[in-house]
Specification:
The protein is 38% helix and 22% strand. The chain has 497 residues and is of the alpha/beta class. Helix 3 runs antiparallel to helix 6. The structure holds NADP nicotinamide-adenine-dinucleotide phosphate and magnesium ion.
């Protein structure tokens, strides 16, 4: 059994608590994937101190050179992709094609950042006065605290760690307690690639101890968080008191609209992948299916037939379509929502139960679930369930579909299936979301585009691509006056010499 330590100032060290916790396989809870440090506030203080000490040197390393270390680390991930995917499936429970995709997302993020090292563009503008330059530069900020969830165990840490260090910051990451091994492997790749000690530090332990210590530490200037809205609100509150910069990527309740002109087979592939991929545990999961009445009966029939054929089980088996939920608590939450759905009058037409039988007895398996006759005010229509539960709505028009799509507090991803160009354009214009897909499901973001959502999904930042650098840099405006005289902005007027 692997014992993982914290990584502080370039050394793998035990927690000052002397205590550890276990990470178990959600498909087979007899299997311990690894043992991790149950860290304390003191451990966080050491990690932040190391990051603070490393910062003055790291920020001076030219960005293209920082990028080269990222490239080397990324090549290590590429070499180990299969091994890392297998480890991730064991610790998280999603199927192998998905964990390969998760590692690939870190690889894509790394190679993008390598290129960005030679770009990190800033803007120059004309001055209002003659013989004067008005320039801007991106500056790193300092120590970044990264707090990540369990559903993308390597991809999400990479979205934060890689651009943060490319931009010249130093980092302390606290990964989710359900999936700390994948984040540790990311850190190891950076260690082997020659990242200087203290630039990246890794501390495991609970959100309430390790997470809170990061939030409150005065030397942590930025908090980058992905997780639940509940914890996100808490983070904004505490970090706000300390005037830290905060980026929040929170929940979703993502709609997929299917119009009569759609290719129904294509829409079917899309909804099954969108709703049941990662066992529904994606912030971008398709949790609401909004069907036009003209295709409603036909599509529901197709959907149930398809879902019945899904193979649920051991996620390491290449033929499995869907693995377990992450843990017992998540399975209880999903089941509680199913009970609420029934009580509120939605009609359960498939699933709605934990899976039973030999193959399932040691894992947190749950049936793919479909509710129809869902009304927009119902709890299952409004709250993020984070499980394989799809709520289906029937509408008379695209306008009504969009009203339902927008009638929730979240706004992360969205999708419309149609072959009518005007309908597609109208949906792009009117859906309140950070991402809209046309003829593709709500999941599947590419790493070089802005990622994030509107309304309660976040606080206006976008990870991914070039926009993530807004989170990890601050602007400096530089004025260079070479006129040789005092020129007062707003007061002196331009005169021809
Ligand atoms: P979570 O409970 O909010 O946990 C996320 C992280 O925050 C974990 O590392 C957790 O530590 C830590 N944490 C918990 N309490 C904390 C506190 N008081 N202070 C500081 N940190 C704290 O979320 P989750 O259950 O892991 O993930 C599911 C949620 O994430 C869903 O709502 C989903 O929509 C959202 N999500 C959003 C995106 C996006 O980009 N929009 C992507 C993926 C997931 P422990 O693990 O130790 O509890
Ligand atoms: Mg686990």
């Amino acid at each position: 059994m692997d014992v993982y330590k914290n990584y502080i100032n370039g050394e793998w060290v035990e927690s000052s608590s002397g205590e550890t916790f276990e990470n178990r396989n959600p498909a087979n809870w007899d299997e311990v994937v690894g043992v991790f440090q149950k860290s304390t506030r003191e451990d966080v203080e050491k990690a932040v101190e190391a990051a603070k000490k490393a910062y003055p040197h790291w920020r001076k390393v030219p960005a293209p050179k920082r990028g080269e270390i990222i490239r080397r680390a990324t090549e290590i991930l590429l070499e180990r992709k299969e091994e890392l995917a297998r480890l991730m499936t064991r610790e998280m429970g999603k199927i192998l094609p998905e964990t390969r995709g998760d590692v690939q997302e870190a690889i894509d993020t790394g190679f993008y950042a390598f290129g960005e090292g030679r770009r990190l563009f800033s803007m120059n503008t004309p001055s209002e006065l003659p013989n004067k330059y008005a320039l801007t530069f991106r500056r790193p900020i300092g120590v970044v605290g990264a707090i990540t969830p369990w559903n993308f165990p390597m991809a999400i840490p990479s979205w934060k760690v890689i651009p943060a260090i490319l931009a010249g910051n130093t980092v302390v990451i606290k990964p989710a307690s359900d999936t700390p091994a994948s984040a540790a492997e990311l850190v190891k790749a950076f260690e082997e690639a020659g990242l200087p000690p203290g630039v990246l530090n890794y501390v495991t332990g609970s959100g309430s101890v390790v997470g809170e210590a990061l939030l409150e530490h005065p030397d942590v200037r930025v908090i980058s968080f992905t997780g639940s809205s509940e914890v996100g609100a808490r983070i904004a509150e505490v970090a706000g008191r300390h005037l830290k910069k905060v980026s929040l990527e929170l929940g979703g309740k993502n709609p997929m609209i299917v119009m009569p002109s759609a290719d129904l087979e294509l829409a079917l592939d899309g909804v099954v992948w969108g709703a049941y991929g990662t066992t529904g545990q994606r912030c971008t999961a398709t949790s609401r299916l909004i069907l036009h009445e003209d295709i409603y009966d036909e599509f529901i029939e197709m959907l149930v037939e398809r879902v019945k054929q899904m193979k649920i089980g051991n996620p390491l088996d290449e033929s499995t379509d869907m693995g377990p939920l992450i843990n017992e608590k998540q399975r209880e939450t999903v089941h509680r929502y199913v009970e609420i759905g029934k009580q509120e009058g939605a009609k359960l037409i498939y699933g709605g139960e934990p899976l039973k039988g030999d193959e399932y007895d040691k894992g947190w398996f749950y049936m793919p679930t479909i509710f129809v006759d869902v009304e927009p005010h119902m709890t299952i229509a409004q709250e993020e369930i984070f499980g394989p539960v799809l709520s289906v709505f029937k509408v008379k028009s695209l306008e009504e579909a969009i009203e339902i799509a927008n009638g929730v507090k979240y706004g992360l991803s969205s999708s419309i299936y149609t072959r009518n160009l005007l309908e597609a354009m109208y949906a792009i214009e009117e859906i309140e979301a950070g991402i809209t897909y046309v003829n593709a499901p709500t999941i599947g973001a590419e790493t070089h585009l802005p990622f994030g959502g509107v309304k309660a999904t976040g606080n206006g930042h976008r990870e991914g691509g070039w926009t993530v650098y807004e989170i990890f840099t601050e602007w400096k405006a530089v004025y260079i006056d070479f006129s040789g005289r005092l020129q007062r902005a707003q007061i002196d007027t331009w005169e021809e010499e």
